[in-house]
Amino acid sequence: MPFAAALTHDVVLRDLTIDDAGALADAYARNRAHLEQWEPARPDDFFTEAAQKRVVDLQLEQAAGGKGVFLVLASGDAVVGRLNLADIVHGAFQSGNLGYWIDAGLTGRGLMTLAVRSLVDHARDGLRLHRLQAGTLPYNRASQTVLTRAGFERFGYAPRYLHIAGEWRDHVLYQLILRD
Predict the structure, then answer these.
(1) Rounded to whole angstroms, how far apart are CA atoms 34 and 53?
(2) What is the DSSP secondary structure assignment for residue 93, as one 8-state letter?
(3) Alpha-carbon distance 68 to 127, whole Å?
(4) Strands 95-102 and 131-136, how do they pair?
(5) CA distance 170 to 162
(6) Using CA atoms, how far apart are residues 92 and 113, in angstroms rounded to an integer?
(7) How far apart are CA 22 and CA 177, in angstroms?
(8) Which of 40, 82, 86, 136 has a 20 to 30 Å separation from 34 between CA atoms?
(9) For residue 129, what is the enclosing H or E element?
């Protein structure tokens, strides 16, 4: 099911395509210092178009199998953020894991909150999921604000949950129940 939503007059949230590989490489390179504190350690080749093409190919395969929704925030030809609903499980669980980032120059403007709200609506009304989950580092107040403004509630704390910036890091866990 194709997805697109205008967030502002110049930023669109839309489906990831294979044509985004070059713009993704540029975005990751441009935001490398900004993202390294929030993401797994990345090898240098991650920031190349070839590596991003491999990532996009894998994510498009997962999307085709109903296992994920992979989106970009785009401004013209530039990628200025990512929003993913990964590890979608159907059956009795009907759930997915939310992840996102935004360009360092666009933080604090409410764009990611708008993007998350758009994806929440799609997950509820389009995908018919029951629940979404997200985790943040305990000191990532900006991400926690995005989640709470989008309706998520804190439901747990996971010690040494993900390997971020070269270390196992604790995470605060959030969830949003979409339907009963």
Answers:
(1) 22
(2) T
(3) 10
(4) parallel
(5) 7
(6) 28
(7) 36
(8) 86
(9) none
CB of 63 within 8 A of CB of 76?
A: no
Residues facing residue 111 across a β-bridge: none
Domains of the chain: 4-177 (3.40.630.30)
Q: Crossing angle, helix 141-149 and helix 111-121, to 10 degrees?
A: 40
Condensed to tens digits (0 to 9), the pLDDT of residues 48-70 reads: 999 999 999 999 999 999 999 99
**Of 52, 32, 128, which is closest to residue 89 (Cα–Cα)?**
128
Q: What is the radius of gyration, based on Cα positions, of the chain?
A: 16
pLDDT bin (cut points 50, 70, 90) of residue 1 is low
**CA separation for the pair 116, 85 (Å, rounded):** 10
Q: Which two tokens stand for residue 121?
A: 């609506």
Buried b (16+ CB within 10 A) or exposed e, 50-62: ebbbebbeebbeb
Strand partners, 152: none
The b-or-e profile of 83-119 (16+ CB within 10 A means b, else e) is bbbeebeeeeebbbebbbbbbeebeeeebbbbbbbbb
Two tokens, residue 157 = 């704390």
Tokens 């998350």, residue located: 116
